[in-house]
Structure formats: structure tokens, C-alpha cells
């Protein structure tokens, strides 16, 4: 990730929260995590449905955004990185600076951000609300490019962890507050509303991010990885991206906290995400490809790579096969195949319908476990 990446549509995890009119309940869950089989830590997340609006004599009084910001800011950090800089010919010519945001999920030093904030970094510095700065050992950075999430650990204790909200309770029109290291110039606060729920989009690496929150809250480069919170000061999203186009204003995105938490927990406990694994590379088939190459179908996922020893290889799937159905689901493009694999289970056996040349066949494949990143 370079500073160049941060200027592109930034995929942000947006924490938006709904306003609850009745008194709520509190649910606390503890996640036991271990990193590199050495240190063990406990992440305690508190989910609170608390009344954020009070009705007095028939009038509605909203909480002060200033009070929310004061509550949340101690749990938000600025992240500054150095990444390699390259010339036109791909030669490294030094380093360049990048900036992003993060938020404290546990008092013992775990911080959440976006993968694209720390991707490729040669050094990472975290600055807290009180001005304290700590460098991050790169061995304590765990990332998942598929969901654009990352966690990192700093050598600190008694940090103010952010309270976790419930993004499934959000409604269109709920207030949302973004707090982050906007433009790399320190922590800023902006406000808006939740514009849409359950939005899907592709990031610049071709990964499909689903279940995003759309918000008109102002999001700028540097906000990536910071929290989107509700009026109770609970994180409901992780600021991730914005739409940059002439005539487009106020269209930003955040990863919903309910979708992000299982990924965050696995990164902290395992250091990587354990997913169903087929072991293929694929690209989408379209009508132009089909005519040019004489394919038997003008939709589907063309297999471009089969990893040695993978479930696909063991099942007999070959390069240039075109998958048109996976586990009963019609496959019209490569992203559909990737999504279908992700929805399956490790160890599950299913039918794969494909074309080899102009012959249609069905192959049974048993999904394996994704390899541990090197």
C-alpha cells in the first residue's frame, strides 16, 4: 500500500449505529486468543443497546456529538507508515509516507485497521489521543486482504477499548459519526447518516466486499481503518472507502462491525483466516471471450491456475475448464465462484459442473483448508 493507494477510493470500515428508544440490555462476550502460540490475551467486547434518545414532554433530545467524540477519541489512533516507492520501471527508489486510522479493541494493545493501510509497510507508527507514539513490530501485524481488515499489537496496557455496537440494528437514516486521522493531519470528527445498508462493491484488488454500510459522513484519505460510531459512542462500522468522481458527493463506505468481528477474532487468535480452499485461479467468461476462443458458453468462471496438491488438482479440475455450476449454484463469473466457495464448508464434498472444451462434465470435489500464509 502506498500513499497512492490512500488517494484511490478508500475502502473503509464504517461503524454506524441505530438509535434505540427503549432501555436496552448489555451482552459481554470474551474471546480467548493466542498469537504465535506464545502470548495469550483476552479480548472483551461489550455490546450495549442503550437508549440514545430521550423523550421529554413530547420532544426528542439528541445526544451531543461533542460528547460522543470526547468519549470515543481516546480509543482512536493515527497510523503512519512508510512503504517502498518505485519509479516508472518498477525499481525501488526509497520510501514514501502513508497515513490511516485505527481503533483499540482490547486494553492489552490490539488495534484494528484496514489491510490497505498497513499493506507493504516497512515501518508502522501508532499515535494515541494523548500524543504518545509507539512503533509496531511488523511480526505483530496480521492481515486479511480479502476483507481489507488487519490487526496490530503494540506494547502497551490499560488502553481504553472502544465499545462494540450492533450493526444489524442499524436503519437507513440513523446518525453516524466518523473519527479518524483524516488527511494524515490528526484525529478529526465528521457526522452524517447511514444512507444504505448491505451494499456490495469491489475493491482495487478485485475482492468483493459485501454487507457494507453506505454513509454520507465525510470520509477522506487517512480515515481508512477508523471507527464509524453511533450516538451511544459504539462502533458500528470500520471506515473503508469513498466514491471519488466528478459530481459525486457524500458517498462513503464502512465494513459493518458484525461482519468484521469474526475476521478480527480469527486474526488475533490464529494470525490468519481459515477458509474453505479449492486451490484455483479464475477469471470471468464473457461473450467476447467466448466468440474469440470458441468457448461452449459465454458465462462462467474460466480456470486459469490449479495449485499442485490442491483439492481442485486432486479432483481432476484443469486449467481452461469453465465452471458453470458449483454446489448447485449457477456460476456466471469468477466472483460468483469465489463467493460460492466461501459459502461452503471445509471438508464438504460437492458437484462441480464444468465445460472442458465443448464437453460438459460433472466432477466431485472436497474442499480443503486454506494454507497458512507464509
Defining traits:
single chain, 374 residues, mainly beta, Thrombin, subunit H, Pdz3 Domain, 7 helices
Give the structure's gist in a few sentences.
Helices cover 14% and strands 42% of the residues. It is mainly beta and 374 residues long.
Q: What's the arrangement of secondary structure elements?
A:
Layout: H1 3-7, E1 12-15, E2 26-35, E3 39-48, E4 54-56, E5 59-61, H2 65-72, E6 76-86, E7 92-104, E8 110-113, H3 115-118, E9 123-127, E10 133-135, E11 141-144, E12 149-153, E13 175-180, E14 188-202, E15 208-215, E16 227-229, E17 235-242, E18 252-256, H4 257-270, E19 276-277, E20 280-284, H5 287-293, E21 301-306, H6 311-315, E22 322-326, E23 329-330, H7 334-343, E24 349-356, E25 359-366, E26 368-369
Antiparallel strand pairs: 1-17, 2-3, 4-5, 6-7, 6-9, 7-8, 8-12, 9-10, 11-12, 13-14, 13-16, 14-15, 15-18, 16-17, 17-18, 19-26, 20-21, 21-22, 22-23, 22-24, 24-25
